[in-house]
């Protein structure tokens, strides 16, 4: 989707300032949210649906939240949707007056068929090869996609082919994994940002085959 989360190439957010000796978590609650999110995945859903849920946070709220606050927002929404907490409990949490209710929560068990990665076999041949010039399609889907706005309708060169992988656009909206071939495509900075960009800079993106057409 074309949401506020897709910030690549946008101005006005200030400089990126790496923090020296940055800790994994700045506050203890961030670690708890991280752990909680991992446990909630045992109740169903998939990583693409969880990414999509973060993108659906209202834009004005999204920009006010920190990274792990967005994770918490997603987790609370998921808990209400799956009945792990009630809507009344969620409202109490938002008001800072949360008191746990006696809700029966089934024990979640990991699926015996769960994959530990996202690579999948493909029977179809690759449409493109390393060295091919390709153009990222000009698409504006209303649902989740991993093709950033700044790369759409831009031309690059395939520098690696990674075989079949789960297709996020389908997986995020409950239409199955629909494995598609994944490539690394290298774009020049000037192709993406114009003649004012450094001519020596490039940006490499991992893009699925349905995003691409031959240039």
Describe the structure in your own words.
With 215 residues, the protein is of the alpha+beta class. The protein folds into 2 domains: 1-105, Nitrile hydratase, beta subunit (Cyclin A, domain 1); 133-214, SH3 type barrels. 27% of the residues lie in helices and 16% in strands. It contains 7 helices and 5 strands. The chain has helices at 28-40, 47-55, 59-62, 67-81, 87-94, 168-171, 189-193; strands at 133-136, 155-165, 180-188, 202-208, 212-214. It has a 5-stranded antiparallel beta sheet with strand order 4-3-2-1-5. It is globular, with a radius of gyration of 20 Å. It starts with 27 loop residues before the first helix and ends with a strand. The mean pLDDT is 92.
| CATH class identity of the largest domain | Mainly Alpha
Low-confidence stretches: none
Tell me the span between the first and last alpha carbons: 24 Å
Query: Helix-strand pattern, N to C?
Result: HHHHHEEHEHEE
- The total strand number stands at 5
Question: Shape, please?
Answer: globular
CATH topology group of the largest domain: Cyclin A, domain 1
User: Which architecture of the largest domain per CATH?
Assistant: Orthogonal Bundle
Biggest pleated sheet: 5 strands, antiparallel
Instruction: Count up the domains.
Output: 2
The total of helices stands at: 7
Strand line-up of the largest beta sheet: 4-3-2-1-5
Secondary structure category: alpha+beta
Q: Which percent range fits the helix content?
A: 25-40%
Mean pLDDT: 92
Q: How would you name the CATH homologous superfamily of the largest domain?
A: Nitrile hydratase, beta subunit
Q: Any idea what the radius of gyration is?
A: 20 Å
The percent range for strand residues is 15-25%
């Amino acid at each position: 989707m074309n949401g506020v989360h897709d910030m690549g190439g946008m101005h006005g957010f200030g400089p990126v300032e790496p923090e020296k000796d940055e800790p994994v978590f700045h506050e203890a609650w961030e670690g708890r949210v991280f752990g909680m999110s991992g446990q909630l995945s045992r109740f169903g859903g998939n990583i693409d649906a969880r990414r999509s849920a973060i993108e659906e946070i209202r834009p004005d709220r999204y920009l006010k939240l920190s990274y792990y606050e967005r994770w918490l927002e997603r987790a609370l929404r998921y808990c209400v949707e799956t009945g792990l907490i009630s809507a009344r409990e969620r409202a109490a949490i938002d008001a800072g007056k949360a008191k746990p209710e006696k809700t029966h929560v089934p024990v979640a068990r990991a699926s015996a068929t769960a994959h530990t990665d996202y690579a999948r076999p493909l029977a179809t041949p690759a449409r493109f090869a390393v060295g091919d010039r390709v153009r990222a399609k000009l698409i504006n889907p209303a649902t989740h996609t991993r093709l950033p706005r700044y790369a759409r309708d831009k031309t690059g060169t395939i520098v690696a082919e990674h075989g079949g992988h789960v297709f996020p656009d389908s997986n995020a909206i409950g239409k199955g994994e629909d494995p598609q071939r994944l490539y690394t495509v290298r774009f020049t900075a000037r192709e993406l940002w114009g003649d004012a960009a450094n001519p020596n800079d490039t940006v490499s993106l991992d893009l699925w085959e349905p995003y691409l057409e031959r240039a």
